[in-house]
Amino acid sequence: MGSTASSTGPLHMLFFPLMSPGHMIPMVDMARLFATRGVRSTIVTTPVNAANLGRTVDASAARGLPLSLHVIPFPDPAATGLAPGQENLSAVPTAHFNTFVMALFHFQPPLAALLRDLRPDALVSDSLFPWTAALALELGIPRLIFHGAGAFPLFVLSNLVNYLPLDPSTDSFTMNDLPHPIRLHRNGLPELVDNFFMLKLLGEAEAKSYGVVVNTFYDMEPSYVDYYKNKNHQGIKAWCVGPVSLLCRAAEERAKRGETPAERDRVLSWLDSKPAGSVVYVCFGSLCHFSGPQLKEIALGLEASGKAFVWVVRREAAEDAAAEAEWMPDGFEKGVEGRGLVVRGWAPQVEVLGHAAVGWFVTHCGWNSLQESVCAGVPMITWPLFHEQFINEALVVDVMGVGVRMWEGFRRNRLEEEKVLVRAEEVAAVVGRVVGGGGEEVEAMARKAREYGEAAGKAVEEGGATYEDVTALIQELEAKRKEGQKEK
Ligand code: UDP
């Protein structure tokens, strides 16, 4: 085993996020969080991603935070099979997900060289770079895993083996010895569960790692943080460092998120004209590709709901009039003018959710979206699509009680062959029922969501559970550095 960092300056942490908005956004926020606590934080990424992050990192550096970017080249398209410039999962068609994941193995030589050169005190590595575990171990650098998911999904996934029915024809199963009985469906599990090659690598990498950093806060999922940290999870250390989105308050530091300043102003000033709690925000994250017919059903459903809405449509579905004409109902925007706003491409989600006019969020249950909704105290209408989103849905609806399902029973509409459209009538019925009221049960959900939002704010304040976990991790890394120096 090599020696740890020899520097005598502040602690130095290297952050190496998966190139996908749902991983880069929270990891950059996390790097900023550690920088605010005096840790020198370096984010490693590729040229196209660095161009997107540059402004936000510069803004943080300009206010004196020790935060910087280190750029390494994206592997040659000839070796990866990806097109030039396809450096982010959001630019890759769903069908090429595995090609992208395999391309990540090509980062081994440049990252090894960088780690040897910089010798940081810790490497925060995305879980999808499992090979960083052996490398960090060889160099004596503690590797902290960032999975992107919360304690509940991580706990559920690491214990699946105890619950999955052996009979492959049994579709649904219940994890019923937990604080809340969790009902899941075999086809709602993350795609990775079927990839034995990756699962084996991830398991081996986890066993070689120092610990896990989780973008959550204790009071959001207390039983499952305890389970994940202490009970069933074979001794791996975990620190709750979230919600990291709460630490990114300055608008210029949020610029990386992708919206143009003009679009941001348009959306926020539109919301300013709406009564508190009256608007539903509809957004399915950065990776979802809906078919034209599904987009049309959403449009018709929102129109028929009679409620005010902000709906984000991904760029490729709305990039030109011809693409849009394929699914947008005739006269749709004119018909909903003043009541509904279509955002093409990217909305300033954290700010939208934090706006008083927004009462509900139709979400695909990506972990960041879920956290951002909780931070803003906004209840959710759940529409999971893939990855661990069906598990997250169970957390929102069955455990936290801050959301309703868009449909009852199991349904999955990601893969073409499985496509079952969610109909306009269903969208209209749920949105129409809950937004702006909906009786005692719905009011109770909204109340609970607000309470979680307040708890999130307290967690990141000095003395809060997250603040203390971050302190504990920093102190542990400082102690490790001293230990390493003594050994020399
Ligand atoms: N996001 C945003 N504006 C959009 C779409 C997404 O700011 O129009 C952000 C959102 O706030 C979140 C991230 O992109 O931080 C999406 O991550 P999530 O885990 O919710 O979903 P994924 O994109 O990974 O499916």
UniProtKB/TrEMBL annotation:
InterPro entries: UDP_glucos_trans (IPR002213). Keywords: Transferase. One of its GO terms (molecular function) is UDP-glucosyltransferase activity. SUPFAM superfamilies: UDP-Glycosyltransferase/glycogen phosphorylase (SSF53756). It comes from the Eukaryota. Gene3D superfamilies: Glycogen Phosphorylase B. Pfam families: UDPGT (PF00201). Belongs to the UDP-glycosyltransferase family. PANTHER family: GLYCOSYLTRANSFERASE (PTHR48047). This is UDP-glucose flavonoid 3-O-glucosyltransferase 7. The lineage of its organism: Eukaryota, Viridiplantae, Streptophyta, Embryophyta, Tracheophyta.
